[in-house]
């Protein structure tokens, strides 16, 4: 497969037939008058950026907690990098950039404090009540928990933005209605009962590029942060042929380059290679599938925006490297265990006395609720916390707070 540069949409201003039409959206759960100056997808993107949930991402862990240093990625900077890559892919494929960017910006809204550690801890305590899933929590935030409008809860996003949020990683159910990756989280099923997001089909191509942009972004920036931390070394990167090739190219062109610049030269080449690989695959699959509309993309028998077989193998190799060298590093595991204790302690404290949930708008009503409903509200409150706020509340409620440094 080769990249078809003639087909790239840079500067063309013309949307491809298979792209989502920003002026013909499937609508919102609560009908609204159209804007005179913005498409519905632009409005969705803008609403997402102005949320409390978006601002909270700046103090939520990506891999390294804030105490480790100011230059490590947070969930917010990760999200911005994903959005930039998603927009570049959307422009190249001549699809709606605003929808792709909006899905990228909202995709991590449901993440807890302390990254996947917090999610695992919250899922464990909520298991008797349906567990916790960050993607389902993102949907709860934008359809229920954000309180910004007089006429409805949530953001009242378009069908396309919500579909992209829920299905950016592919269909959730098979032809028999069974979950393809385990049971479909109940919050998603509850919402689809009111506003069917068609869980058995692929999402739009805009959502697909947002999903693959997520992989490209964290594969790259987790290497960058790993090198900064010292958990990764250039010698370790040599174990992966793709990265070894990039390093050889940089060394040949810039002999004796200082480590910081060397790292950035590798990273930008990695992003470029992965982005161009996705575009090449997407162009080939679009020629095979020949979708005439965005609905044809949803009904296709395959994902359109994805890696080639060779880049998918590189992706797996990078993920294995990150898992063994960073995510399971003894020091990271120590911090993870301490962070999990904070989340677990707070959950039990709030269940015992909901009044401890300061500033929660339902705190005075939760005490009289049945346990399942009470647990879900406590989960909402905990999931919305930043790392810094969770630590501060734990220090207020407990005599000893684990050291996360």
TrEMBL record:
PANTHER family listed in its UniProt record: DEOXYGUANOSINETRIPHOSPHATE TRIPHOSPHOHYDROLASE-LIKE PROTEIN, DEOXYNUCLEOSIDE TRIPHOSPHATE TRIPHOSPHOHYDROLASE
One GO BP: dGTP catabolic process
Coiled coil: none
InterPro entries recorded: dGTPase, dGTPase-like, dNTPase_2, HD/PDEase_dom, HD_domain, PHydrolase_assoc_dom
Annotated family: Belongs to the dGTPase family. Type 2 subfamily.
Domain HD, residue spans: 75-219
Pfam families: HD, HD_assoc
Species whose genome carries this gene: Xaviernesmea oryzae
Keywords on record: Hydrolase
Top-level taxon of origin: Bacteria
Protein name: Deoxyguanosinetriphosphate triphosphohydrolase-like protein
PROSITE patterns membership: HD
GO MF term list: dGTPase activity
